[in-house]
Amino acid sequence: MEDITSLTKIQLDALREVGNIGSGNAASALAQFLNRKIDMAVPSASIMDFKDIPAILGGPGTRVMGIFLKVLGEISGRFLLLIPEDTSIKLLKTLIPGCEIEDPLKMSELESSCMREVGNILAGAFLNALSALAQTPMLNSLPSMTFDMAGSMIDSVVADMTAVSDKVLMIETSFIESEEDLRIHIFLLPEPKSLRILLQKIGVI
Question: What's the pTM value of the predicted model, to 2 decimals?
Fold first, then answer.
């Protein structure tokens, strides 16, 4: 299987369910981390070109926070969270009492550390659910983080992903807390060989 464009409808539906289970686990982890009730909108899943990612974030000039991790184990690849600027600020103000930040470019080390931990928790929870479903260990690397315009971020930080495929499986979901819309875009890019293994593990190949 060269890339995800060769997926059948049954296989794509199965991956959507994987996203649903993983996102649900991530929502539960976020609720525990924030110590608040978190509701999750039903995730959507689609295959898209990397070049189209900035458009769903509001355009190439939209400022977003990117948190990137490697997926390690028999099923390997990349895991990426893109968090809009307003959601980043809401999360920081929720996590850090008295935080008055209005510009993520001016984050302190504590604030940066908190956002990386959010990424670590969400990715870990998502992959734990996927690991249990596939019955194979999956780990994530320590997260790296950047804050930039969506176009520049995709061009620079995600450029090496295109060596694997110019397509990406996007799982998009929203976490709702205290009437706030905390929109986080989740991207999962398995390596081609790992995609075949994953589909075998969940019984659709």
Answer: 0.83
